[in-house]
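Section 5.1 Outputs to date
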Amino acid sequence: MPVTEIKNVHFKPGQTLTVKAVPHADATRISLNICYSEQDIALHVNPRFDNNTVLCNACQKGCWGEEVYGKGFPFARGVAFTITVTFLPEEFLVALPDDSLIYFPNRLRATDYPNFFSKGELSIESFEIK
């Protein structure tokens, strides 16, 4: 499964991350991850084309937590999308392409996440932290 990694980005409370990407025509599941490593993921945004759901989760020391689901499925294979994540001290606010929101708690409780990676059949077009 293709992986894109961006290290030493230092995403902190009060900042917003905007990712623009295009899922491939054969995409089944893709993910955008804000983390320390693949074992410690603060925010895992996971659009699933195989069952038309979007979920968020966190992974601590390799153990996944409770999934939080979005409403609807504002993604299409081969169509560019933008996801915006605002990092608040206690939670992440995830804005999906249809402007719906998922509120996801900052379960790892850190104030600085240094890494980002995407996984699955997609091409990242842009990545910006403000």
